[in-house]
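Working notes for the structural subgroup meeting. M.R. asked for a predicted model of this chain before we commit to crystallization trials. I am recording the input and output together here so anyone reviewing the notebook later can reproduce the run.

Input as submitted:
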Amino acid sequence: MCVLHKIAMALVVIGALNWGLVGVFHYNLVMALLGSWPMVERLVYVLVGLSALLMLGACKCCVDGSVCGMEKK
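Returned structure, recorded in C-alpha cell form:
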C-alpha cells in the first residue's frame, strides 16, 4: 500500500469512528475538537470524503504490491 493510500485509510478510519460516535452517542468528536474553527472542521470532512473516494480505487503500485515510484523486485 502506497503512502497516499495509508494516509487515506487513516482518514477514512477517523471518519468512520466519528460517525460511529455520532450514531451511538450523538457526539461529534470532530466538531468538539475543531468547533471553534469551522473552516478547518469543514476541511476535515472534505478530506475524509476524498479519502473514501480514493480508497475505492487503487493505484498501480498498490495493485501489484510495489512501492509508488519503485519497481517490484
